[in-house]
Amino acid sequence: MAELAIKGKVVKILPETSGTSGAGKAWVKQDFVIETADQYPKKVCFTAFGEKTVPIVKTLTVGQDVEVSFNAESREYQDKYFTQLNCWKISKNPNGITNTPQQQHEQPKTEAVVDERELPF
């Protein structure tokens, strides 16, 4: 799959959520919303999950330019599908934002594998 990334301005940072999985492991996640600079701006909510990306979200400020690399995943629940955008890289972009097409690169193979039984939903 090609790398998915969106550039935009941070418009909202939601509270951190934490808990313990069924396997007894602690987890933490935090959602944040960015708005694109397209002709018709879109607001997009991302989820930072784990100790790699949540600390980066804590350093973000509303109005800050960022580029978010993410994976899109949908889950079925009672015959309805819910999509979550899980970020795996957040780059602060002090030079402003542009949503121009870029050359696609393969996603790094160093991502942590998440056991489905450890997810909070």
Q: In short, what is this structure?
A:
Helix content is 4%, strand content 50%. By secondary structure, it is mainly β.
Order of helices and strands: EEEHEE
Which class of secondary structure composition applies to the elements?
mainly beta
**What's the overall average pLDDT, rounded?**
83
Give me the count of strands.
5
Question: What would the principal axes of the Cα set say about the shape?
Answer: globular
Distance separating the two termini: 25 Å
In which range does the helix fraction lie? under 10%
The number of helical segments is 1
Q: Largest sheet, described in full? A: 5 strands, mixed, barrel
Which radius of gyration do the C-alpha atoms yield?
Answer: 15 Å
Low-confidence stretches: 99-113
The largest beta-sheet arranges its strands as 1-2-3-5-4
Oligomer: single chain
Task: Characterise the protein shown here.
The structure is a single chain. Strands 1-2-3-5-4 form a five-stranded mixed β-barrel. The model is unreliable at 99-113 (pLDDT under 50). By secondary structure, the chain is mainly beta. The protein starts with a strand and ends in a 29-residue tail after the last strand. 4% of the residues lie in helices and 50% in strands. Strand 2 and strand 3 (43-49) form a beta hairpin. The protein has one helix and five strands. It has one helix at residues 54-58, and strands spanning 4-20, 26-35, 43-49, 65-77, 80-92.
Descriptive key words:
1 helix; mainly beta; five-stranded mixed β-barrel; 121 residues; globular
